[in-house]
Amino acid sequence: MRTNLELKAACPSLSAAGKIARKIGAKRIEVLRQVDTYYRVKSGRFKLREINGLQSELIYYERSNRKGSRYSKYVVVPLSSTDSVKRLFEMIFDEVAVVKKIRTLYLYRNTRIHLDRVKGLGSFIEFEVLMKRGKRQAQAMMLFLRREFGIERDSIVAGSYRDLIWKK
């Protein structure tokens, strides 16, 4: 499994965050309409992600729910037949949540910056620092991004969007 260092926080202004991303030199890649369907599994989280109604992938990840930056181990498997997989999963898994979001993706060095508008939850910013150069580099990058974007501790979210939907 691959590893990254992640942080999610409430974001009062996605347009201001986009300006900061461009200011630090992040490249705006695309806007993604994503539907994540989460399924009940023994441990970790497992979801089917549909992207722009054109492609999809399975994502399994293990991550703590602690507040602050946290390491995540994950596997992503691209799919060629979303409808067949979705029908199969409906037969064998319990669906636990559906998260619909519009995500603007920026790339900055070894980091994905997500500016998310999540249906029913609001606006969020996520950083995913890919572990390409070790933990020290990932932690330094996370600290840099938190400082640049002005992420305060009280805006940081401990769980996933799935968890936030459960709480509503």
Question: What attributes characterize this protein structure?
Answer:
Hypothetical Protein Pfu-838710-001, alpha+beta, 4 helices, eight-stranded antiparallel barrel, globular, 47% strand, 168 residues
What would your notes on this structure say?
There is one protein chain. The model has no long low-confidence stretch (mean pLDDT 96). A hairpin with a 3-residue loop joins β3 and β4 (55-63). This protein has helices spanning 14-23, 82-92, 135-149, 161-167; strands at 2-10, 27-39, 45-51, 55-63, 70-79, 95-108, 111-118, 122-130. With 168 residues, the protein is of the alpha+beta class. The chain has a single domain, classed as Hypothetical Protein Pfu-838710-001. It has an eight-stranded antiparallel barrel with strand order 1-5-4-3-2-6-7-8, surrounded by four helices. It contains four helices and eight strands; from the N terminus they run βαββββαβββαα. It starts with a strand and ends with a helix.
Compute the separation of the termini in Å.
32 Å
Helix-strand topology string:
EHEEEEHEEEHH
CATH class: Mainly Beta
Figure out the total of helices.
4
* Rg estimate, integer Å: 16 Å
Overall body shape: globular
In total, the number of domains comes to: 1
Q: How does the major sheet shape up?
A: 8 strands, antiparallel, barrel
CATH topology: Hypothetical Protein Pfu-838710-001
CATH fourth-tier homologous superfamily: Hypothetical Protein Pfu-838710-001
Structural class: alpha+beta
Oligomeric state, counting identical vs distinct chains: single chain
Low-confidence segments? none
Task: Give the helix proportion (percent range).
Answer: 25-40%
Average pLDDT rating? 96
CATH architecture: Beta Barrel
Strand order of the largest sheet: 1-5-4-3-2-6-7-8
Beta-strand residue fraction: over 45%
Total number of strands: 8
